[in-house]
Structure formats: C-alpha cells, structure tokens
User: Which sequence fits this backbone?
C-alpha cells in the first residue's frame, strides 16, 4: 500500500513537472544538486522548529536526518538521487572545513549573532523562554548594546541552521557553512535560468552567475555570521523559483518557493518586505503580459507568507504581537531603536533620497562617519581605494566599480521591458541587500569597540 502511494505521488510530481516544458524540467546535474541543497536547508529548519515547538530541544544529528529527508523528497522529483548525495556530502564537508578554519572577527558576528547561536546550543528555546541570556548560564552583555533585545526580537532562521552545524561539530565557526550552501544554490539557479531562458553561451552563463552570486559584499561576508549575504542569495533564489512557478505551475518550484519564503522571511525583517515586494512584482508583471489573473498564485503566496511569518516565524513575529509590540520591533514602529542615525553625518540625513543615493554610490569606499564626498577621479578605481574596505564598510561598500555595474543593470532593464523574465531578473541585479552597504538605505556596520551601541545587520 505504501509503495503504491509513493509511486502514485512520484508519478504525479513528475508528470506535472514535465507537462508544460520539457526543456525547463529536464533537470541537469546542477539543477539536481541545487534543488537537493535547498530542500536540505529547508529540512533542517523545519525539523529544528518542530523540536523546539514540542520542547525536546535540538537533536544533535538533525543534519543527518535532513539529508535522509531531502533524499526521499528529491527521489519523487528526479532519478539517480544516489549520484547526488555523495557530491553533496563532499561539498558540505569541504565547506565545513573552510568555515572551521577561519574565525569571524566582525562586530555583529561576535556580539548578537554568535551569542544567539551559543544560547541555542546551550538549550535556549525561543518558543518558551523569553530571555536568552538569563535562561542559560552565559554572561549578560545587555549593557553593551542591548544585545539581549536583538536576540529576543530578531528573526532566527540563520541562527537555527548554524547551531545545527555547531551541534554536530562542537565548533561554532562551522555554522558559517550555510553561507556557502546558499551561494551554491543561488549559483545553480542562476546558471540554470540563464541556460534555459537566454541564448548566451556556457562560459558567459558561468561567469555571469559567479559575478551575481559572489558580489564583493557576499564574498566578504562568507566567513562571517552576517546575514546579508544569505538574504541576497535567498532573494535571487526566490525570484527565479517564483518566475518558473507562476509560468508553469510546477510543483517542484512551488515547494522550493515555500522553503525559500520560510527561510527568507525569518532571516531578517527586510526578508518579509522583500518577499511581499518580489511576489507582488512578479504577479503584476505576469498579469500585465498575459492579461490573465493567476488566482492560484495569489492564494499560494498569501498563505505562504502568512504561514512563514506567524507559524514558522512564531518568534519573533507572533511573540512581538503577543507582547504588545510592533510586528517588526525593534527596527520599525513604536519604541524602535535607532541603528542608523548615529552612524553617518547628521547633515547627510537632511538631503533628499536621490542625493543620498548619488553621494553614497559615487564616493570613495570607506568606514568613515563623515559626509560622503563623490569623486570622479580615476584613482577611485585603483586598488588603493579599497584598503579600508571589509564587511563593515559604511560608504560605497560595493566599491568604486558599482556605479558602472548599476548603470549597466538599469540599461539591461530598459532594453528588455517587453520580456517579463528579463525585467524581473534585472530587479535581482539591482537589489541593494547583498550587493553593498549604502547610507541611503542601510548605512554602516562596525562601530568602534568603545561604542556601546549595537548595529543590526
């Protein structure tokens, strides 16, 4: 009986996948590896949430269980799953070793990110325990930037994924492995998207996918516990997944979209905003070009976002409301904490948004709090212009070449207005998070050690 159910469900998945476009759903090796990795990350997250919700604590071998669950789900989607698992295992071991070898020296990484991961490792359960620092035996550092507030009220998907690697290896630095896994999936999705929907050659597709995946910010943050790089890669993955789902009503990409929504909404507060924005843009663009309203997509996204926010994101979204606080506390709403104003020149905030954008994009990369000064000297393109750069760069964090890339992205956008896929793909190119840290959107990272305020990233 069980065998018949499994066979019927597998047939249903595959027949639906290949009904509309064999070119899209004739999965390549890169497709299979990317899908397996994304489902693996989703499986770790869901397994961990279930364990926390029933109060048993995080199980040490969740990663092993997640591989088994992912293998079963992927066997419903494509064949030769046993050829994928050894390659995936090799990659995850390689990424874990690299992560363990490098320490995270970033300000945010060593304050509230790692503190939250240690709290989870030592038994803190955000479903039931209010204060992560007093519920377990670790020193309170609330006087140094209200770290406990950020841990209590910050989305937690990256912390939950990271602590599972910490549980298995007993080395907190291995938690950074997820950065490499997200980048692997983003690269695979980008390469597959370009290969199937454009006429560019293989070399161009590989190079372009690498450039979009390993931007200066994502590359710099790869060996830290910052979440912006993962946020950016999830945005790329969600955009491509939704584009394929809305066009082909494909069950595999419906599942992938749900997984990405769950992780994106719960990685950072802006993840919720991006999820709503991207899904809405895709819906309206599809409606305009097809002149049809896809009601199934509306229902899917509505329930997906609600479920990811208030059920999977019970802490912090639902718990914030239960405590009488704004949904996005402490970043937005009544009682919000200022994490931006003190980091840049006060006169800068008085300028209009366009001038802020211009100054931040065309200024020399620096971690200074001084007013950004646009430069048009060729010297800003020299290596010396990058000597003060890092994952905590306040101004023009992408680097001096970013204005050129931005203008090219806008040009690409304008030249492809008739192609909905190209339009939305262009949107991913100019998405700010992951590409750079810019004052007009989210300035600054690293306050000096003597400063008592915590920056959120």
Assistant:
């Amino acid at each position: 009986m069980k065998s018949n159910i499994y066979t019927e469900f597998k047939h249903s998945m595959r027949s639906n996948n290949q009904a509309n476009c064999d070119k899209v759903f004739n999965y390549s090796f890169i497709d299979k590896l990317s899908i397996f990795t994304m489902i693996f990350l989703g499986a770790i997250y869901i397994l961990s949430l279930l364990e926390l919700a029933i109060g048993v604590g995080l199980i040490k071998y969740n990663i092993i269980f997640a591989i088994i669950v992912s293998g079963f789900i992927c066997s419903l989607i494509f064949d030769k799953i046993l050829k994928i698992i050894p390659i995936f295992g090799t990659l995850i071991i390689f990424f874990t070793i690299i992560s363990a070898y490098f320490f995270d020296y970033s300000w945010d990484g060593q304050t509230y990110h790692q503190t939250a991961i240690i709290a989870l490792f030592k038994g803190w359960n955000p479903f039931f325990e209010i204060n992560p620092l007093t519920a377990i035996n670790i020193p309170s550092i609330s006087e140094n930037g209200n770290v406990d507030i950020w841990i209590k009220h910050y989305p937690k998907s990256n912390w939950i994924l990271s602590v599972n690697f910490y549980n298995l290896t007993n080395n907190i630095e291995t938690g950074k492995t997820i950065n490499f896994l997200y980048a692997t999936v983003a690269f695979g999705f980008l390469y597959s998207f370009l290969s199937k929907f454009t006429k560019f050659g293989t070399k161009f597709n590989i190079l372009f996918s690498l450039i979009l995946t390993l931007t200066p910010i994502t590359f710099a943050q790869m060996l830290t516990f910052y979440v912006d790089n993962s946020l950016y890669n999830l945005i790329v993955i969600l955009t491509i997944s939704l584009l394929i789902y809305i066009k082909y009503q494909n069950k595999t990409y419906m599942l992938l979209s749900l997984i990405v929504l769950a992780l994106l909404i719960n990685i950072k507060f802006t993840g919720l905003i991006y999820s709503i924005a991207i899904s809405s843009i895709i819906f309206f663009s599809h409606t305009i070009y097809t002149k049809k309203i896809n009601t199934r997509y509306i229902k899917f996204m509505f329930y997906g976002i609600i479920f990811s926010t208030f059920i999977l994101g019970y802490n912090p979204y639902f718990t914030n409301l239960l405590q009488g606080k704004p949904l996005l506390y402490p970043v937005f709403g009544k009682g919000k904490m200022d994490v931006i104003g003190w980091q840049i020149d006060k006169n800068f905030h008085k300028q209009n948004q366009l001038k802020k954008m211009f100054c931040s994009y065309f200024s020399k990369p620096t971690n200074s709090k001084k007013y950004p000064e646009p430069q048009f000297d060729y010297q800003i393109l020299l290596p010396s212009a990058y000597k003060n750069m890092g994952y905590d760069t306040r101004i023009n964090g992408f680097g001096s070449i970013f204005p050129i890339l931005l203008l090219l992205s806008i040009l690409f956008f304008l030249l492809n207005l008739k192609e909905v896929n190209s339009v939305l793909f262009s949107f991913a190119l100019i998405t700010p998070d992951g590409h750079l840290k810019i004052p007009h959107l989210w300035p600054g990272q690293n306050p000096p050690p003597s400063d008592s305020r915590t920056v959120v990233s």
Remarks:
- The chain has 19 helices and no strands.
